[in-house]
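ugh finaly. both done.
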Amino acid sequence: MQFDFLIIGGGVVGMAVAYGLLRRGQKVIMLDEGDDVLRASRGNAGLTWVQGKGVGMPRYAELSLQSSDAWPFFVSELSERSGVPLEYSRRGGIDICFDVQEAEARVDSYRKLQASSPYLARYFQWEYLDRQALLTHLPGLGESIHGGTWSPHDGHCNPLLLLRALLTANLKMGLSYHPGCSVQRLESNSVGFKANTLGGTFSAERIIVAAGLGAKHLSPMLGMSGEVSPVRGQILVTEKMPLISQLPTPQIRQTDNGSYLIGDTHEHAGLNRDVTTSIMAQLAARGVRIYPHLNNAKIVRAWGALRVMTPDGFPLYESSKVYPGAYNINCHSGISLAAFHAEELAQALLHDRLSYEFSEFSSARFSKIN
């Protein structure tokens, strides 16, 4: 069979793009290295988030907001196609400010972000709330918390169920999926592109590198940027506790099964995914500071995972100038942007308009940083 697209990478980013292409009648083959690789899709907290996105790049904030608005339909359709519930909720979210300096900096950055974009000025909703006002949204909030920003756009899901739903739906739509397939080399040929693996050679008319940190060595083979680096995050998981109607935050959220996820660390530790006692202690202390009722909760699990970061932290969407038909898709917001990746981005890829519609996300901007 001749395939239209060969996708390298089976995380949420690659799966969401594949979902969008398959829904548009494309024949897609996907090579996925395996569950033992540095997969960010299985290690994140599952936030579908708008707050904080795009400070310094308004277009990214606009995409995040548009994706958030598209998520309810995306979830409904994906759940129907796959039969997998995503535990998705969009009741708004809170980004906690621990002191007055953090609060003032947050408010200032959000005001500047809105002022930089007519779209955000009109549609991005947020409000700073002091601790007393936050109690409505975060019952049980600790007395030492200064306040936080509230936005109705934010939500959360179960990222493991999202990945399972995408894979299930994609297979039903005809995805040719090859797990445990490590790509050694990418090349162009007379009919498009081929990927050489230890298990054989795979080819398609066009190719998408959505390999996360693997793009560092794969993308340059096709004349595209490999400027990505890992940033470690650690997460603590408590025992299951009675459900409380609390909005999610980047610092802590309660899942549908009652467990609390406590995280939001940023560490430059190379490819090391280990958890460390010092960070776990800091997370536990911060969790209890936010919700004192967790003081006696048991920690049942902890993990470390690696975010995929570009030099400026914003998404990378680019077409190869050397090999037309090759694309590089990379970001650390694969959950939040999943609805966008399955719709507008897939549409741009299908019609080869990535460099026109999303030119500000190409790697050309990195030369200004360096």
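ok and the 2nd:
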Amino acid sequence: MANPTVLAETPPTREREKGREKGSDFAELSRRIADAGLLRRRPLYYTVRFGTVALALAGGVAALLVLGDSWSQLFVAVALAVVFGQLGLAAHDLAHRQVFTRRRPSEIGGLLVANLLLGMSYGWWMNKHTRHHANPNHEEKDPDVSPDILVWSRRQASKAKGLPRFVGKHQAALFFPLLTLEGLNLSFNSFKALRSPSMKRPVLEGTLLVAHFILYFGGLFTLLSPGKALAFIAVHQALFGVYLGSVFAPNHKGMPMIEEGTRLDFLRRQVLTSRNVRGGAFIDAFMGGLNYQIEHHLFPSMPTPALGRAQVITERYCAELGVPYHQTGLLASHREALRHMRSVGEPLRRAQ
């Protein structure tokens, strides 16, 4: 294929054909995971984790009230950017029913965390993220690699026009600066999605979004002078966007893309397009378990604390099958993603 980072269909081997007579490759992995007890809910873990985030949010609000109209509030903005990032990860786990088995409590928690606390539509994000999980890194079907501003394959670059064509030339250098706008982009798209036919509860979601921004802007401009409030918003939203981008970008960016017409089974589609990030307890907390992206994509409802054990089982199983399993460090993952972005933008630079 023209793009070496695009996946071709994996031809079936005799061993794989024999295996299909007994069940799919994923079915065998799923059996091993279930036998290890890794799919059961972990209420104590989520009680402690969400309780810690709630206390941190309350502490940030208390600091805002105590410090008053002071430039020291910019330090609070930095801390709250991290808290908002953790709230985003909490909303993610709720959406995947990692916390509750039933839909209703998951949805109520997701609406409160995403819409009210973050200013992001839970329904819009759920729809988008579900399509991503079904077809990760698919050029036509994954909304996370649609060429809205950035391009993710040379095929997309060859068709790019307008802003994507202009940005795509230097997208590796512009990636992190653009992430500073990601928080605002999520909110903008959330309001825009309220008119979408796919939105199940537009009035409820819209009301919660409006309530968020009344509290957010109203509180800041009441406590701070206009200049300090604007500075707080700029620092908070920029770092929040960079944090989210630093959590989600290493997972798939720079991994092989899937073209229309390519056929892969579920296990290979998820494993070959995903990247795990090593790093121990700090990275686990920083990325909310999404550093185990391969396992998360294979078992989306698996609670975060079980992903580490699942990683060992999955990597060994992929070795048995001869399926490439990619894992690297956090900085290396970003280097790979940026290298890929620079590579796919090369045709646009040559065309200048």
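summary for the 2nd one i guess: The first helix runs from residue 14 to 22.
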